[in-house]
Automatic annotation (TrEMBL):
This is Uncharacterized protein LOC116302384 isoform X2. One of its GO terms (cellular component) is extracellular space. Pfam families: Fibrinogen_C (PF00147). It comes from Actinia tenebrosa. SUPFAM superfamilies: Fibrinogen C-terminal domain-like.
C-alpha cells in the first residue's frame, strides 16, 4: 500500500520520536509485529501499528483512518487472521461486529495505568484512552518512570531564551490532550475532573534548567499524606498539605528543593506545599514549591508562563530546552 495523508484511529500503536521518514519505515520493517506505520512530518513522531487494512479497503477500514495533512500512513505487511463482520466487511481480529452493519473499535482503556496493568504498553508515547462516559481522548503516557503508567498533564519545553508569557487558563480536563501548549495553565477544577475520570492517586513533578544544572524529580506517596497533596491541588477551597511526609525522590533527583522540604511554604507557614498567599486558581503550576533557602533568597518549582523556575529564584537565566512537566497515576 502506497503512503497516504492519513493516520489510524486505533490505540495499539507505539509512538516514537523520529525526525526521519525513512527511519520510521525501517523501524516498522524490522519489527515483526509492525503491520503499518504513520509518520507526522511536522512533529517528527513515528507510530508503529500492530494492525492494518483489508485489501478491498472497506467502509469498516475507512472508519479507522483520519485524514491529516502532513501525516503519512503506509501498510507494509498483511494483517494476520483477519475475520469477517456479519455485514461481510473485513476487519482486524481485535474488532467486533456491532449490529451486523459496522465494526466497533477494540476496547479502549481508561488511563495509562490501566494500559500498563493490562500488559498493553508499547513504551512511552501517545495513546487513546476512553473515560467512563465514553469520551475518547489522546494522551501521552510515560511507561518507563517508576514502572510506568503515568498520564502527562502538562509539559513545557522552552524553545527560546525569552519564553512565552501568554496565559490561557483552563478548567477543562480535556486540555491534557494539549499537554505541550506553553500558554495553557491547568486550574484545580480541571485536575479534579481529570481525577474523577482517571481515578489517579499519585502526582509527579519534573524540571531541569541548564543554568541551574539540577533536576527536581519527585512523586507523591500512595498514602493518606500523598492524598492530601492531590486534594490541595484539585479541591476548592484548598486545605494546606504537609510536605515532608507526602513525597519521595526519584533516582535522578539532584535538587536542593527536595532535600529541604521542612522549609517549603511560607512566608509564615512551613513544611507545606505551595504557599498560602498564592493558593488561588493558578496554584497547580505557579509556586508549586517554595523554599526560603535563607533569610533572603528563595528557590521554587514553578511552570507558569513568565515564571519558569526550577530549584532557583526569580533572577535565574532560562535556556532553550529547559523542561518542566507533571503527571498523574
Amino acid at each position: 500500500m502506497l503512503p497516504t495523508s492519513r493516520y489510524t484511529r486505533s490505540t495499539h500503536s507505539c509512538s516514537v520520536q523520529s525526525t526521519d521518514w525513512l527511519e520510521c519505515i525501517l523501524r516498522c520493517s524490522e519489527d515483526n509485529n509492525c503491520v503499518s506505520y504513520h509518520f507526522d512530518m511536522v512533529k517528527g513522531i513515528c507510530g508503529l501499528n500492530s494492525f492494518g487494512l483489508s485489501a478491498s479497503f472497506s467502509s469498516c477500514d475507512s472508519e479507522r483512518l483520519v485524514y491529516s495533512e502532513g501525516v503519512v500512513f503506509q501498510q507494509l505487511r498483511k494483517e494476520k487472521n483477519q475475520v469477517q463482520c456479519l455485514s461481510e466487511k473485513t476487519c482486524a481480529p481485535e474488532l467486533n461486529q456491532a449490529g451486523g452493519e459496522s465494526c466497533k473499535a477494540q476496547v479502549l482503556r481508561t488511563s495509562c495505568k490501566e494500559i500498563r496493568d493490562k500488559g498493553e504498553s508499547h513504551g512511552d508515547g501517545e495513546y487513546t484512552i476512553k473515560t467512563p462516559e465514553s469520551t475518547e481522548i489522546l494522551v501521552y503516557c510515560d511507561m518507563t518512570t517508576d514502572g510506568g503508567g503515568w498520564t502527562l498533564v502538562k509539559k513545557t519545553v522552552l524553545t527560546s531564551k525569552t519564553p512565552n508569557t501568554l496565559i490561557v487558563l483552563s478548567t477543562n480536563w480535556r486540555s491534557i490532550s494539549q499537554y505541550d501548549d506553553p500558554k495553557l495553565v491547568i486550574q484545580p477544577a480541571a485536575l479534579k475532573e481529570l481525577r474523577n475520570r482517571l481515578g489517579f492517586n499519585q502526582m509527579r513533578w519534573f524540571c531541569y534548567k541548564k543554568s541551574v544544572n539540577r533536576k527536581v524529580h519527585i512523586m507523591t506517596k500512595a498514602t493518606a499524606s500523598g492524598e492530601s497533596v492531590i486534594r490541595y491541588f484539585s479541591e476548592s477551597p484548598p486545605v494546606p498539605a504537609k510536605a515532608c511526609i507526602s513525597f519521595q525522590l526519584l533516582p535522578d533527583d539532584t535538587s536542593e528543593l527536595a532535600r529541604n522540604c521542612d522549609g517549603w511554604g511560607g512566608p509564615d507557614n512551613f513544611d507545606e506545599w505551595g504557599r498560602r498567599d498564592r493558593s488561588g486558581e493558578t496554584r497547580v503550576q505557579y509556586d508549586v514549591i517554595r523554599w526560603q533557602k535563607n533569610g533572603i533568597s528563595v528557590n521554587h518549582f514553578s511552570m507558569y508562563p513568565g515564571q519558569y523556575l526550577c530549584d532557583d529564584g526569580a533572577l535565574s537565566i532560562t535556556s532553550v530546552n529547559d523542561t518542566w512537566a507533571y503527571y498523574v497515576r
